[in-house]
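Researcher: Hi, I'm a grad student and pretty new to this. My advisor asked me to get structures for two proteins we've been looking at. I'm not sure of the right format, so I'll just paste the first sequence and hope you can take it from there.
Model: That works fine. Here's the first sequence with its structure tokens right after it:
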Amino acid sequence: MTSDPLSRSGLKPDQVPADFVVDQGFDRYTAADHETWSRLHRRQFELLRGRICDEFFAGLAALGIAADGIPDFRQINRVLKAATGWEVVAVPGLVPDRVFFTHLAERRFPAGFWIRRPEEFDYIEEPDIFHDVFGHVPLLMNPAYADFVAAYGAAGLRYAEPADLTRLARLYWYSVEFGLIETAAGLRIFGAGIASSPGETLFALESDKPNRIRFDPVRVMRTRYKIDDFQQSYFVLPGFDAMPDLAAEPLERAMEKAKALPELEADAVIAEDRQIAIDDRQRRPAA
């Protein structure tokens, strides 16, 4: 496979549509591409047992996202659209913020259609189809999660100041990408950045190093993060029904409170934090 994702679409840079949506090019995947997907899926599926929320596995099953090969977006969308109004669209890499927000607000999830090379099996710098589809898409079958992601897109379109967009991005980072959630069985993963990473899967739930803090939108919007290492703090939701309210008025109130308070480093702990402890259920997950 070529290292240039754009070339898989058959388009030159000046031919990319304004919305960045391209054809997935399903028939162009090679046997090696499908084998890379299968290896990634099998490894992560087993590792996530007893570590990720049940809703994730339910979404994988319902959408037919399996280990037998790269999924066809057309097949996923027939089920996903009927369930929550969402669909997956192929894009040739990262897209500009306004394009990203618009897609989310209109319930389109932009997913890279390319898959990593074998030598990138354990780490890639830019999200590929495994991160985007295996990590993100299954939970779009959950109505509360699906509504939150759409509301996030709409919120992004209401703000233009870089500092406001930075605070907003932290809400996404510490939930959709790196969120943890409390369940009857114990603490579980729901963030796609954890779900698609074997190393962070173990670190997020079993290491004594990171902070695990009750999710509060103002606290989260104040907290910086790192993109090139495991997270130093994870924020924990008590359930999907507690996803932050991103409607205009409550979000603006939270935004104003965050603006008035100091920024916090990724590893900061403050007096108001409610730490969430891990226990033996996290250290010895179910087989």
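Researcher: Oh nice, that was easy. Here's the second one.
Model: And its structure:
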Amino acid sequence: MGRTPLDTPARQQEVFAAVLHVLAEVGYARFNMDLVAARARASKASLYRRWPSKARLITEALKANLPVLAQPDEGTFAEDVRQIMRSWGEPMPFDTAGIFLGLLEGSRQDADLACLRAEHVDRAYTEHLRVAIDRAKARGELPAGLDGDVLVTALISTFILRSEEDDVIGSIVDGLLRPLIG
């Protein structure tokens, strides 16, 4: 009896889960199709036929597993950020911090990954924060001249680097944002 084809949704999700687990465990530099093939019980050749590079395979796995993110409007910037970060932190079967660190590492080494990540993944995580920042500026909660890109980077970086801590979202919102914005 043959294997289930990689183009069935269930089989693709098995492969994508293997991809994200491997990326989180070994990082981008040591990530390879052999590791994914072994974990997903697939042939390396079948992976390469469908995804010609590890950058494209990783990007497709990430796109298929992006969390559903709603655009909150809680009335304050701090509460909007709290809700956005809660949606990032919804229980996932993957090591989110390991995945993001692998992506950052890989993006420094692989221009194709950097481009694919910026186009397909970054926007999904930053778009809601940018809307919240624009709304907060319009309400006067944040200074008009504030560099939104730097704030987005600071929030995401802090979330990723401290994601293993208890109540990291509370620490960021109540211990960082509220004192800064008053």
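Researcher: Is there anything I should tell my advisor about the second?
Model: You could mention this: The domain at 67-181 is CATH 1.10.357.10 (Tetracycline Repressor; domain 2).
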